[in-house]
Amino acid sequence: MRTNVFITALAAASVSTALETNAFRLVVGVVDHDLNPSLNGAMLGWETTGDCLAELVVKADDYTPATFYQSEGTVSAYDAEGPSSAGIIVTPGGTATVPSSKPVELKCGDGTPGVTIRQTPYAVTYELDFEDGVWMACPSPDNAERIAITYRNQGQRTIEGCAEVKLFVMCDPNSGKLEGSETVGCNKL
User: Fold this and answer.
1) Where are the alpha helices (DSSP H) in the chain?
2) Which whole-number Å values give the CA distances from 47 to 63, 95, 155, in the listed order?
3) Could you tell me which of 81, 87, 145, 149 has the C-alpha nearest to residue 114?
4) Can you tell me the distance from the alpha carbon of 169 to that of 116, in angstroms, rounded to the nearest whole number?
5) Strands 44-50, 53-58: parallel, antiparallel or unpaired by DSSP?
6) Which CATH architecture has domain 5-186?
7) Tens of pLDDT along 62-105?
8) What is the pLDDT of residue 54?
9) Who contacts 83 (Cβ-Cβ below 8 Å, separation ≥6)?
10) What is the pTM of this model?
């Protein structure tokens, strides 16, 4: 695995200041197999796929990124224009070596237990974590401009054509305090 300039710069910037927030953005840091154009620094948002259901996606610069928060051991997205929040739903699957290509979803209500914010080794950065697996960013088969977030377990390979990514927690000073949210560590935006 190569060292990524974005991840290295993020770590260097975060060392000097311990920050906390209860509302944050999730920002992509490519670990391996970057796409063209690069996904480094892209903020996550969602695309609605049904009634109170959406997929977690990396979008173009012309959208408003999603605001996230952690509450009761899981991470959710907050929609200021909608009536409620949506939990992050991770559905691991596939075989022992090949992951499912099912996108990570947002669904009204609680998310998958264990999807949390963790402090990386050496207390340098904060990132989204689920069972020590790996996040991937994969182009949609029918629309290469649409990049969905998927998940693979340890021991499974990265799907061909997908980027292996980390989802960094970036402080969002403009979001204010969300009712019922927990304070988590964050990286400087």
Assistant:
1) 5-15
2) 11, 27, 29
3) 87
4) 11
5) antiparallel
6) Trefoil (2.80)
7) 456 788 999 888 898 887 555 467 899 999 999 999 999 999 99
8) 87
9) none
10) 0.86
